[in-house]
Amino acid sequence: MYRHDDNLWLFMVVGSPPTGMVSLMSPQEFEGAKSFVISPKTTGYRWDSVGANEVIFSKPGKYTLYVSENLESELGGYKCDLVVKNH
User: How far apart are CA 69 and CA 87, in angstroms?
Assistant: First the structure.
């Protein structure tokens, strides 16, 4: 998930997660999932120098959800823009 206002990546599922990361589910579960829920309390792992779990929708603004086998390649996958209001 990308939070535009903070220029911040929040990862929910990672193949080799950093120590302390709370994942939404394992990569194997994600691969087989037909749907999943991102609740107001779902956390993502900050992919920055802070490197900690954070509630994804903790601030109003624009977010983009990316789903791909390899986000670094920017090939394939899906993306969805979301706007969080009335925080």
Answer: 32
- Mapping DSSP to helix (H, G, I), strand (E, B) and coil, where does residue 72 land? helix
d(CA 64, CA 78): 10
Whole-number pLDDT of residue 78: 86
Map tokens 């390649």 to a residue.
73
The per-residue pLDDT for range 34-65, each reduced to its tens digit, is 999 999 999 999 999 999 999 999 999 999 99
Domain containing 54: what range?
Answer: 2-84
| Residues paired with 62 in a beta bridge | 83
Identify the bridge partners of residue 83 per DSSP, sorted by sequence position.
62
Cβ atoms of 87 and 60 closer than 8 Å: yes
The answer to whether the CB of 24 falls within 8 A of the CB of 42 is: yes
Of 16, 21, 14, nearest in space to 52 by CA: 21
Asked if residue 43 lies in contact with residue 56, where contact means CB atoms within 8 angstroms, the answer is yes
